[in-house]
């Protein structure tokens, strides 16, 4: 009962090459669920692109990437001696440091590190003055917020820290903004770390499809699902591949900066309180309602009686959040 990601390999790879060519020094980020494609697959793609370095989120992701990629691997999560012993015996791995205790613990060793500077993100990093311990630094790292002027924030952070040369590994800057930062800090070698804009930048090159597992035509009043809710109208109950284990209908909190966005959240919450939740599945040209919350591996979806039901084995479109989705199968065609 597969939930499948269909990928137009030629179009997807053309996009990857375009982003790489437009942003010299690019470091692909491969972390979490591999942006829906899987960590191993993205590591192999990075090897095919012949980039010298990739970045992972946490140390546990290094081993899987290492099996499929031959270059250096940066770990974005800062290391701290309170979290683990400093056993960095892989010469291909570069760890990030963001605390004085970490610098002190690694002073005089041959471990490769990046020193992270604190930006307006306020997540990790040193504030000036910078640490003075002798470490084998591969440069500085900047993690920039998505909102605001990232170029100005990066320039401010570097100048405040007195960094005017050497490698600087920077997130969330590409294209014209990256070129502008290069113009403002000409002595710095910028290494843009890129995840979403690289792997997910061309949405037209991939699509998620759910396999129809079962179709039932039911009269009004029929009880369905775990919670035995009644069908309020006659119609079809569809059993579709994809549930909570795949990330179906799982959402992170969203920013709601405008009145329109708040109105949509309010309307969605009101419908949810009434037991009505729109599913991410599209059948016969329309997005359809859940019969109840998704199960672990399948979802129950309602289809009106006047609609044309799919057949068992058909595939129907499903909208997913790629950074939380796990597919049964990824097909490059």
Oligomeric state of this protein: single chain
**β-strand number:** 18
Biggest sheet overview: 8 strands, parallel
User: What share of residues are in beta strands?
Assistant: 25-35%
Strands ordered across the widest β-sheet: 2-9-8-7-6-5-4-3
Distance between the termini: 20 Å
Low-confidence stretches: 261-274
Total of domains = 2
The class by helix and strand makeup works out as alpha/beta
Which CATH architecture of the largest domain? Answer: Alpha-Beta Barrel
Shape: elongated
Mean pLDDT over the residues: 92
Cα-based radius of gyration, to the nearest Å: 24 Å
How do the SSEs run, as a string of H and E?
A: EHEHEHEEHEEHEHEHEEEEHEEEEE
Helix content: 10-25%
The CATH superfamily of the largest domain bears the name Alanine racemase
Report what the structure shows.
Residues 14-128 form the Alanine racemase N-terminal domain. Pfam families: Ala_racemase_N. GO terms for molecular function: catalytic activity. This protein is 24% helix and 29% strand. It starts with a strand and ends with a strand. The model is unreliable at 261-274 (pLDDT under 50). The protein is α/β, with parallel strands linked by helices and 333 residues long. It has helices at 9-22, 39-49, 62-68, 100-106, 150-161, 175-184, 196-199, 259-273, and strands at 3-7, 27-28, 53-56, 72-79, 93-97, 112-117, 136-142, 166-171, 188-194, 206-218, 223-224, 229-230, 235-241, 278-283, 286-289, 298-304, 315-317, 329-332. The protein folds into 2 domains: 8-201, Alanine racemase (TIM Barrel); 205-332, Lyase, Ornithine Decarboxylase, Chain A, domain 1.
């Amino acid at each position: 009962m597969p939930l499948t990601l269909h990928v137009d390999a030629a179009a997807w790879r053309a996009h990857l090459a375009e982003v790489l060519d437009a942003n010299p020094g690019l470091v692909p980020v491969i972390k979490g669920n591999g942006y829906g494609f899987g960590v191993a697959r993205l590591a192999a793609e990075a090897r095919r692109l012949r980039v010298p370095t990739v970045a992972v989120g946490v140390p546990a992701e290094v081993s899987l990437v290492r099996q499929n990629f031959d270059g250096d691997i940066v770990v974005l999560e800062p290391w701290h001696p309170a979290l683990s012993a400093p056993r960095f015996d892989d010469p291909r791995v570069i760890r990030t440091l963001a605390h004085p205790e970490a610098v002190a613990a690694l002073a005089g060793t041959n471990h490769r590190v990046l020193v992270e500077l604190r930006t307006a993100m306020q997540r990790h990093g040193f504030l000036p003055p910078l640490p003075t311990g002798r470490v084998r630094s591969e440069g500085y790292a900047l993690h920039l917020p998505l909102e605001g002027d990232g170029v100005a924030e990066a320039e401010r952070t570097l100048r405040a820290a007195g960094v005017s040369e050497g490698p600087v590994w920077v997130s969330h800057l590409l294209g014209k903004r990256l070129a502008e930062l290069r113009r403002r800090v000409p002595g710095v070698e910028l290494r843009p770390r890129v995840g979403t804009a690289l792997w997910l930048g061309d949405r037209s090159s991939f699509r998620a499809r759910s396999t129809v597992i079962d179709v039932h035509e039911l009269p009004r009043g029929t009880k369905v699902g775990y919670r035995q809710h009644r069908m309020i109208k006659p119609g079809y109950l569809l059993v579709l591949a994809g549930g909570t284990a795949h990330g179906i209908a799982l959402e992170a909190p969203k920013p709601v900066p405008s009145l329109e966005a708040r109105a949509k959240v309010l309307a969605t919450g009101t419908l949810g309180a009434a037991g009505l939740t729109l599913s991410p599945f599209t059948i016969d040209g329309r997005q359809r309602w859940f019969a109840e919350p998704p199960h672990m591996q399948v979802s129950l979806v309602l289809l009106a009686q006047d609609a044309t039901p799919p057949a068992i084995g058909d595939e129907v479109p499903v909208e997913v959040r790629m950074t939380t989705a796990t597919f049964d199968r990824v097909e490059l065609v």
